[in-house]
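Lab meeting, item 3. Inverse folding demo.
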């Protein structure tokens, strides 16, 4: 049988609380992981993600949504430009 593995998802607040145990309350990563019931590697990953967001090197949810929207709009505008370019070339030939 080929069953898909189900991954547990955690809320943003849960991740922030788990990281705050390490950064603000002085727990070791292993202690914090045991306290909240996750793998220590997850705490390290969440901590790194929070640090990247603070530095500004990682996009937040709103920025990511806007980027996707802008890329779609850019693609649409490029297609429209190509259509207009072809149409103008066609009509330029017709005028000669």
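The presenter then showed the designed sequence:
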């Amino acid at each position: 049988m080929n069953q898909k593995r189900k991954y547990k998802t955690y809320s943003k607040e849960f991740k922030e609380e788990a990281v705050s145990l390490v950064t603000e309350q002085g727990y070791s990563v292993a202690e914090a992981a045991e306290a909240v019931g996750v793998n220590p590697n997850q705490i390290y990953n969440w901590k790194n993600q929070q640090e990247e967001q603070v530095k500004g090197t990682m996009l937040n949810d709103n920025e990511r949504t806007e980027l996707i929207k802008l890329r779609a709009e850019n693609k649409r505008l490029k297609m429209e430009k190509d259509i207009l370019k072809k149409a103008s070339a066609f009509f330029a030939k017709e005028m000669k």
